[in-house]
């Protein structure tokens, strides 16, 4: 039985760039569709839920910024991988994109081989994470990992704390699963970067700090005074399931 090609949406208003991306992605065997603005992209996603495998998103678009589009996509498809392509190179631009839910960020101009490599890695990573959730669910009596009033559902990409339910992005869930798998161990930022983000990813240790702050909002009763996702000064982080004094 043949496998349907992965569907990628290219959200880019510069025709030459958009057409070049579509041509090269189709040559790699993907199904690639171009949208030049945010509203048409969001309408497509709403009308075809679960049918898109990856978004390539420009930030500077007419009418609606890429940041707004990214946030809106996250509301519709929380675990859909989003790769931002932008001429903006400032650290705050990258940080804002990650805060809006982007998984990766590439600055223009970019090298096509690297873009294709990242595309493959994001798609395969998402497949692996979905299988991981299914595997965990099958091997446990419940579909989650629980500690101190927090429940992590690997299959649904959700965290429940009290009456609140948070839906995580693909990378947030991958990072949380990584901490859980290494519970009690001190994990350096460099090791986290190596193990969770693929080689060559255009991110810094500051990006890890931003993702940890987001995870703390889901896990901690008071994120300013974490009891589970702890900072280890000068090194990195340590996840502990049981509260420490």
What do these coordinates show?
With 245 residues, this protein is of the alpha/beta class. It has 2 domains: 118 residues, Rossmann fold (3-Layer(aba) Sandwich); 100 residues, Arc Repressor Mutant, subunit A, CATH 1.10.10. About 3% of the residues have low confidence. The strands form 3 sheets. A 5-stranded parallel beta sheet has the order 2-1-3-4-5, with helices on both faces. The protein has 8 helices and 12 strands.
**Total DSSP helices:** 8
DSSP helix fraction? 40-55%
Adjacency order of strands in the biggest sheet: 2-1-3-4-5
Which regions have little confidence, pLDDT < 50, spanning 5+ residues?
Answer: 136-142
CATH H-level superfamily of the largest domain: Response regulator
**Do you know the CATH architecture of the largest domain?**
3-Layer(aba) Sandwich
Number of domains: 2
What fold name stands as the CATH topology of the largest domain?
Rossmann fold
Overall shape: it is globular
Q: What's this model, at a glance?
A:
With 245 residues, this protein is of the alpha/beta class.
Name the features.
about 240 residues; alpha/beta; Rossmann fold; Arc Repressor Mutant, subunit A; 5-stranded parallel sheet; 8 helices; 12 strands
């Amino acid at each position: 039985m043949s496998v349907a090609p992965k569907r990628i949406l290219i959200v880019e208003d510069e025709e030459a760039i958009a057409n070049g991306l579509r041509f090269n992605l189709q040559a790699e065997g993907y199904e690639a569709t171009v949208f030049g603005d945010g509203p048409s992209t969001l309408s497509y996603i709403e009308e075809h839920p679960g049918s898109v495998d990856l978004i390539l998103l420009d930030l500077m678009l007419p009418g609606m910024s890429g940041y707004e589009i990214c946030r809106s996509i996250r509301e519709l498809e929380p675990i859909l991988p989003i790769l931002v392509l932008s001429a903006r190179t400032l650290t705050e631009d990258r940080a804002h994109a990650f805060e809006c839910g982007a998984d990766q960020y590439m600055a223009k101009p970019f090298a096509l081989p690297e873009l294709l490599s990242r595309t493959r890695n994001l798609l395969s990573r998402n497949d692996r994470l979905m299988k991981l959730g299914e595997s965990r669910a099958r091997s446990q009596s419940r579909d989650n990992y629980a500690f101190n009033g927090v429940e992590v559902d690997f299959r649904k990409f959700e965290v429940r704390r009290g009456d609140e339910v948070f839906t995580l992005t693909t990378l947030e869930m991958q990072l949380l699963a990584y901490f859980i798998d290494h519970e009690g161990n001190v994990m350096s930022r460099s090791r986290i970067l190596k193990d969770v983000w693929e080689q060559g990813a255009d991110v810094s240790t500051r990006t890890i700090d931003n993702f940890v702050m987001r995870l703390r909002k889901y896990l901690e009763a008071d994120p300013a005074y974490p009891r589970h996702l702890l900072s280890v000064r000068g090194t990195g982080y340590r996840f502990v399931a049981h509260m420490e004094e």
